[in-house]
Amino acid sequence: MRKSLLTITCLAAFAMPFAASAQSEAGAAAGATTGAIGGAVVGGPVGAVVGGAAGAIIGGLTADQSRQVRQYVIQQERPSVRVQEQVVVGQPLPRTVELYELPPDVGVQTEYRYGVVNNQRVIVEPGTRRVVEVIR
Hints:
There is one protein chain. The chain has four helices and four strands, in the order ααααββββ. By secondary structure, it is of the alpha+beta class. A four-stranded antiparallel β-sheet has the order 1-2-3-4. The longest helix is centred in the first third of the chain and has 35 residues, at 25-59.
């Protein structure tokens, strides 16, 4: 199992060079590894690849930018939408979940949106509505 997880993690990290190309390489690599491991725990090999990609994207933010985004999202009082599906990185959110933009004053320009579902705040890729990160 450990060998498979390591292989999947490496494949996910190398399969996503486009995600890391315009970002901090160290942050993206760390994010890809963390995302792949988390994705593998939840979704097996497919979860590892999706988690690695999402981690590389979010991991590309500097520590300060990541902190700013998380802090902003946590402070917003937005209604939570209840859904039957489990909220998992790599899985799309239903259309019933409203997505909100990050304002320019957060200091981070990003295409990502956030939402609140099942009392959890999530960062979402708006085109596919896939969860990129669950903020804990």
